[in-house]
Design brief:
The protein has ten helices and 13 strands. The chain is α/β, with parallel strands linked by helices. The protein has three domains: 91 residues, Arc Repressor Mutant, subunit A (Orthogonal Bundle), CATH 1.10.10.10; 105 residues, D-Maltodextrin-Binding Protein, domain 2; 105 residues, Periplasmic binding protein-like II (D-Maltodextrin-Binding Protein, domain 2, 3-Layer(aba) Sandwich), CATH 3.40.190.10. The protein starts with 9 loop residues before the first helix and ends with a strand. This is LysR family transcriptional regulator.
């Protein structure tokens, strides 16, 4: 009965297609590199498992049966699909021809990736990234949950389930309106920040908490009533004189080509930075490739963004 038919093995399907091509068991066995009795046994087993006769055998030769004709095209598709599967698996084994799900914070992605991804694509054309933005805490949770293959983040805490490679240090710049009393200096005494109202992003951003720690250290006030939803919003709030702010160096490098309305400087003898890492699960089968990717990213960042950030040694 057909309902009790057993699926043939991949080798049996290959043997069937080869015999159908040669219509001669001896020639087909030679092409397959097996003995003729082995080939005959396997074809007989395939016919028995399917409950079908695939070949008409006679003293004058071998012909495909009607059932054999009906199954031949499907059998060839199975072999082609298996070949494609094997080729894809070989390509994936070195990581160069894969799409990875990359998570990155919105305060970093738009200002870093345009400098990095084109060079990665030039070096590894088959490598692709599906990029999604989220706050660092959400990125770490998503990485552990399998929502991301890897994340690029200023992740500060450690987790035994996550491996990471440091990429670079990004400075935080001190920004004021151009008509602010502190404007006009390249370096400002940190003591002058005491009592200033410092604008920052909403507290769901890791950046918010870093600025909060800086303000606590300097005696400045975080303006909780005026939190920005993006770096662009924060920038406009500073321009309007609502307060001063610390802003990521890559944002300054990428966006402030004509900063007439703003003054950008640093705190004297007090460099403020945030470190970014590339991280992945320690069980990821691509972890060896991710370490290679980390090194590739560092080289590109050093070449493209020298002066804006400091690559981790």
């Amino acid at each position: 009965m057909l309902s009790n038919a057993k699926s043939p093995s991949l080798n049996q399907i290959r043997y069937f297609v080869t015999v159908a091509k040669h219509l001669n068991f001896r020639h087909a066995a030679q092409a397959l590199g097996i003995s003729q009795p082995t080939l005959t046994t396997q074809i007989n087993a395939m016919e028995a498992s399917l409950g079908l006769t695939l070949f008409e055998r006679s003293r004058s030769g071998t012909l495909l049966s009607a059932h054999g004709h009906a199954l031949l095209m499907s059998a060839e598709k199975v072999l082609t699909a298996n070949l494609h599967f094997s080729e894809m698996a070989r390509n994936l084994s070195d990581g160069d021809n894969t799409m990875y799900r990359l998570g990155i914070p919105p305060t970093l992605g738009p200002y870093l990736l345009p400098h990095v991804l084109p060079d990665i694509h030039a070096l590894k054309p088959g490598l692709k990234f599906y990029v999604r933005e989220a706050a660092p805490t959400q990125l770490q949770q998503g990485l552990l949950a399998g929502d991301y293959d890897l994340i690029l983040t200023p992740m500060s805490d450690t987790n035994s389930q996550i491996q990471s490679q440091p990429l670079f240090y990004e400075p935080l710049k001190f920004v004021t309106a151009s008509d602010h009393p502190l404007a006009g200096q390249d370096y400002i005494d940190p003591e002058l920040i005491r009592g200033e109202q410092v604008l920052t992003l909403e507290d769901r951003h890791h950046f918010h908490h870093q600025v909060q720690e800086i303000c606590l250290q300097l005696g400045a006030r975080v303006a909780r009533d005026y939190e920005g939803t993006s770096l662009d919003t924060l920038r406009q709030m500073v321009v309007m004189g609502m307060g001063v702010a610390f802003m990521p160096g890559l944002y300054i490098h990428s966006e402030l080509h004509k900063p007439e309305a703003l003054h950008v400087c640093e705190l004297a003898d007090m460099p403020i930075v945030r470190q970014h890492v590339l991280a992945w699960r320690n069980t990821s089968p691509s972890r060896t490739f991710f370490r290679e990717l980390s090194s590739m990213m560092r080289n590109i960042i050093e070449d493209r963004l020298k002066g804006a950030v400091t690559v981790t040694e």
